[in-house]
Amino acid sequence: MEQYEREHLGALRRIAPECMVLLKSNGDFPLAAPQKIALYGNGARHTLKGGRGSGDVNVEYFPSVEQGLENAGCIVTTKAWLDAYEAAYEAGKNPFQTWLREKIAAEGMDRLMENLSIVMPEPDYDIPLDGEGDTAIYVLARQCGEGVDRGAVPGDLFLSKTEIRDIMTLQKEYRKFLLVLNTACYVDISPVAAYIDNILLLSQPGMTVGDSFADVLLGRAYPSGKMAATWAAWNDYAEISEFGNREDTRYREGIYVGYRWFDTVGTKPLFPFGFGLGYTTFMLTVGAVSITKTVASISVTVENTGSFAGKEVVQLYVSLPQGKLDQPKHVLASFVKTEELQPGETQAVTLSFDMADLLSYDATTCSRILERGEYILWVGNSSRNTVLAGKIMLERTVTLEKVTPVAGETDFTDWKPMCGDRTVKECAVLTVDPDDFTEKSFVCPSPDDDAMCIAKKLTDEELCYLCTGEFENEGSKQVIGDSALTVAGAAGESTGRFRHLGVQSIIMADGPAGLRLARECGRDENGVFPRTPPTDLRVLELIPEDMKKVLLATLSGFKKEERSGETYYQNCTAIPVATALAQSWNIDAAEMCGDIVREEMMRFGVDVWLAPAMNIQRNGLCGRNFEYYSEDPLLSGKMAAAVTRGVQRDGRHGAMIKHFICNNQETNRFRTSSMVNERTMRDIYCRGFEIAVKEAAPIAVMTSYNLVNGVHTCENRGLLETMLRGEWGFAGVVTSDYLTGDKTPSDEINKYRKFRAVPSLQAGLDLVMPGGKAHYEQMLAALKDGTLDRETVETHAARMIGCVWKLRGKGQKEDV
Fold first, then answer.
1. Is residue 260 part of a domain?
2. Which of 14, 229, 493, 565 could form a disulfide with 524 if both were Cys (CB 3.0 to 4.6 A apart)?
3. Does residue 134 sit in the same domain as residue 180?
4. CA–CA separation, 804 and 451 (whole Å)
């Protein structure tokens, strides 16, 4: 293991416990010393470090919970049970694969990748629970990933009959029992939650998962995470909310997502947003509120009142006035995580927020406003455990931004609550002067002048190459997650045809939980190549012969038998998945993870990381929720901005935030339309992106596969030019998501087609990825016949040149 690997794993092992959330505790844990452990559950031996698909990271090794316990000196007494479980799982594959073969044959090529991504639900089995020792641990794992949403079935969203039976039995039969949730996606544990004394949300904290868990179990570290999303019984979620429709999915719940729904309607969840216990306890003493101009601040003293060291997360929520616009009960406005506090130790923290950040969209005036009235401040350690801290009075409504609607029309009105009495007891009231707010004017950034000079001298053909990802001959390599020519396993790269102009190619790698590269690689006279296939070729046995030929054609980039040469390795670090990292509520930890990724980008020759992914966790069934931070836009935006700052710290590496916008389901992801009203889109789904853009200036933004109100996001000029560039001041490059942009036969049998290259460039997209000859020819033909304006393409090309110069330097260029 090289020095950088040891350093990164050491940092990650320190970060991982901060991502774990202790949900219930009776004081039995941590254990005083290593001992015999009766270990059960599907995640005990097959522990998950992260999710599936492009969010995965190909690592050399990571310890399971079983291995982590043994590394720490514990004795696992249930080897027979773990072996028997593996046999039961393998036996369950036969009926599942028979069902899947039939489904694939019936639904055809258009849904092939969606079907191949389906995760087998946990099977039922009957294995004796007879491990030795006083302590039992049950590790419940749930896997999800790109390409398919989860099933509301036992063994996936719900617990299986076997899981319920075994968990309840272990609680009764062992003196100490811990239920461990090895998942970054929601599971309805309501059948057992009330009966279990100790529950730890291990989540998926990266490649030290097993060792980090053992550290926490034995008190060598402590869990200090808080929930980044509300967990409740499945039937308690908003029934008005549509999800998973193949054509149009209506966001009828409007702004009432997550805790905004639960706290407003008064439904008690299992574990509220922001909640988390620790091995110790804390007391918060709230000071007075102060306000300077439009910035409000409040001091809070945190005291460790328990017997263990720990960290606390102090959270500030604000209740907005109920005026012209309806509002949730409260919204997160600020948070601070303390330093490590020893028993009896105190720390004073200050929570601050700008009143201007509480703005809401008013559809009647097409403006973002703060309404007149009282803004009530609450301080606590979860959304359901707060105390009144003060009030701020705004005596007249303030317009902060005049904007242009960009979402389009829907056929429904957002749900609104029946607002009851929200009066609170009297307390000190501060007044903010409405004249202290300044209405914002917008300036759309222009491309670099030198870059524009070069772009204007290029031929039509050269312009089109700059707006298309690098490709060879008839197309890109077209391997999912492996379309680069320079770095084995990288996701793609921009064209390298203009090195004579000082414009290098930039290499892009996927993997929101770390760099997703080929680990074992080869190098010969023709360049680099992965020595392992880009996907598990065993899935081919599930596919009918006619479809198999098509799929094999897309895997043509992997031809192990035809190439030889020296072997080398790209050992990357899998950091906590976004949900786990958000559960740390630790901005410094997020920046540190960005630092880890940047250092490995430098080592392996990657310029742009296709991350952070920061869509809102709207529904527990979304297959990519593990890639996303939270149900809350403030927490999402702050964490994504922190990671981005870490990645971009040296000015030579860039982050690409994604997927812009409303990519909240995987079902029919290329052709489904998120139907969402303007206020909901701006106040919830765009807000995190806005925070990340304004606070961290990412080098690039990736659009989403889905449509918004019937228009593809990459073909929506309002989203890309009016909002992203004009309102937010984004100066970077906008790219498409991968492996789409072509006309396909299935366009004729679906309500919506896939997005296309030329309309996307017309709308403000700069780069089609991963790129191919068809995209290039479509652009060139449109330029030649006047469908595509040359000045528009010059602007896109200039942005690409400017992006390359920022990351790679201008280099030596010739006169054009």
1. no
2. 565
3. yes
4. 10
